[in-house]
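Late entry, evening session. Most of the bench is empty. Finally got around to the prediction I had been postponing all week. Sequence below, unchanged from the version circulated by S.P.
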Amino acid sequence: MSKGGASISDEEWERFQREAEAGTQGAPQEPSARARMVTRRLQEETDRPEGWRTHQPVRQRRGKGWYAVGLLLAAGMLFVALDPGRVTDWFDGGGGDTPLAAEKERPDQPPATEAAQQPTLQHPFKGSPAARWGDGTAGITVPEARATGWMSKAQVSQTLDRSRDFLAASSLDSGVLLGQTPEKAIALINPKQKDVQDYLATAFRAPSKDADPLLLFSRFAKEKVRLVGDVVKTRGRITFREGKRGAVEVTTDVTYVYPVAHAAEGRDEVARTIVRREVVMSWDDPAKVITEPGTFSLVSYKSDTTNGGCDNHTGFYVPEFRSARTGTGPEAGREVDPYDRSTSMDARMQDADGTKCGTATRS
């Protein structure tokens, strides 16, 4: 360790250790700068090899400092045993451990069940697998580009970025989430695709079962709920392949978790609306398909929502809060784990076919 250009020689260091062990008059009461550096390095390293001065014969520690440390450790262990949830909150913001690695392929099983904890304004994802998911677009895996169809590698890379931009503009934009028309998202959809444009016009003017904007866009009525925090948790991925007429066909399969509270201040109960949405886009060759450059044609879109309102065709999600549940009435159909991404959206929608509403196994 150097300080101001000076260094401590090996002889001085060994003399210091001998004097400290012998209780030499005037010996320093705290480690030197060099000792602090070594200690800090050892604390930061894991599975480290034996260091250049780390091996020492075992000695009896008689100092009061070590006794105090022992008491503190014992007290800390007792605190963890008595209130593990509080310690968990300190380190992970109220749920989960380290962030999950990016999703590169469909998982083979649902995420593990979390401890039963209710979300709060400070920790809206507490008790949810989403606590370990990415924030916004960070939770959406974008694959490495390669030349495909009519596009070069650079063009495919730009197309993937624009596809993710659509997801952000349709499902993550705070203004859109609070009811604004998703103009940026709509601008990315081929204006020459007449049936889709007709659908969009009707969906925002007069939403219905056949023209539901929630199939493509996430929206809440700000008169009824407010967003909790500025983070939407996501998990999913984008894939691509060559489509018809040399187009680049992009498939997005993403689950979004939205924490909300009552619009009225003072009502702090938090609920979560969970949406899994699959959108398939065809980025067509303008030489072969009538389109506007920089836009895509919709191939298909599917949406599966938990706590967004049963048989809801208002054009806005209508989440239910625990305090409003009566606990009476017949069971509402199949059980659904909204965090389970191990099945395809096709299988998910087939399972839901013919049922009125599902019952979420967790929120």
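Two things to note before I forget:
The mean pLDDT is 79.
The longest helix spans residues 64-82.
Will write this up properly tomorrow.
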